[in-house]
């Protein structure tokens, strides 16, 4: 038995509508992931090559994971998600076996998506700082080459899409970004004002708000906030309403004021890539 857990297979239940803003990212994902599954013959008729692997990159908390789940859900693809570090084993050969097993399961459950969250944690740069001393460097080298072999092997088969996300594209081994590997890069940026309005509307769906709550104004006042930060603001506003009155039935603008004082943007402007 392997020391590494088997990756569960699911079709997630996230709709495009559950993700505020990000319209061009959704469009790019549909083209890169959904079309090759749905319109294979049309694509080959026009000589359009689907990307082999798709990499979502951008600051944390900006919906990369949600987007991956949504594209699987909307295209009805089986979804096998792994976090970078989860496949890393200290036992020689285990990680490579886990990767091979993962791709085998994806092929047997095709049409499917393998999603590597935090790809940098799986395979950092070979020369990079996390390669560290001898043992670790050797391990990530073998893991990387196993991953590349599996991706190259998908060439003829179709039916399996490889999707990955990272906050640190600069830490990835350049071999991963060559043609035929992760050859479609999609930037998932911090939300702009319009996107923040949409994200807040999504997050306020289940939150009864008082008439004085001005979502447009909240969007103006949350420049630099990620989607995850906005979720925290909504959560804190709800808590502030309850703190004031345990019987509260609505969240008012003053509760959002309190929340804005408590929740600061988590992403430094310089890391918006
Ligand atoms: P990380 O890099 O930290 O893994 P991520 O980019 O994968 O982050 P998610 O995990 O998808 O981000 O988002 C975190 C949470 O933030 C989501 O579960 C959701 O509650 C909220 N969120 C982020 N972006 C959006 C959005 N565009 N619309 C609605 N909710 C969002």
From TrEMBL:
Superkingdom, taxonomy of origin: Eukaryota
Domain AAA+ ATPase: 50-192
Name of the protein: AAA+ ATPase domain-containing protein
UniProt source species: Pleodorina starrii
Lineage: Eukaryota, Viridiplantae, Chlorophyta, core chlorophytes, Chlorophyceae
Gene name per UniProt: PLEST007002
Span covered, complete protein: 843 to 1115 of 1130
């Amino acid at each position: 038995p392997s020391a590494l857990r088997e990756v569960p297979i699911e079709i997630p239940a996230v709709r495009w509508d559950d993700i505020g803003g990000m319209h061009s990212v959704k469009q790019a994902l549909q083209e890169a992931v959904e079309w090759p599954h749905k319109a294979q013959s049309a694509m080959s008729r026009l000589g359009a090559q689907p990307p082999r692997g798709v990499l979502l990159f951008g600051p944390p908390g900006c919906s990369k994971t949600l987007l991956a789940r949504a594209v699987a859900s909307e295209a009805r693809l089986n979804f096998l998600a792994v976090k970078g570090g989860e496949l890393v084993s200290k036992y020689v050969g285990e990680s490579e076996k886990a990767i091979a097993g993962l791709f085998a399961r994806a092929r047997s459950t095709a049409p499917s998506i393998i999603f590597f969250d935090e790809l940098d944690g799986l395979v950092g740069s070979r020369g990079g700082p996390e390669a560290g001393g001898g043992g670790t460097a050797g391990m990530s080298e073998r893991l990387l080459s196993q991953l590349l072999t599996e991706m190259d092997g998908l060439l003829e088969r179709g039916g399996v899409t490889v999707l990955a996300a990272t906050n640190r594209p600069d830490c990835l081994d350049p071999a991963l970004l060559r043609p035929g590997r992760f050859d479609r890069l999609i930037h998932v940026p911090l939300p702009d004002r319009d996107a923040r309005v949409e994200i807040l509307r999504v997050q306020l769906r289940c939150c009864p708000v008082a008439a004085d709550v001005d979502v447009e104004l909240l969007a103006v006042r949350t420049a630099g906030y990620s989607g995850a930060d906005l979720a925290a603001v909504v959560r804190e506003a709800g808590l502030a309403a309850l703190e004031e009155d345990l019987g509260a039935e609505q969240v008012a603008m003053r509760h959002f004021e309190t929340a804005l004082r408590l929740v600061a943007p988590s992403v430094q402007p310089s890391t918006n890539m």
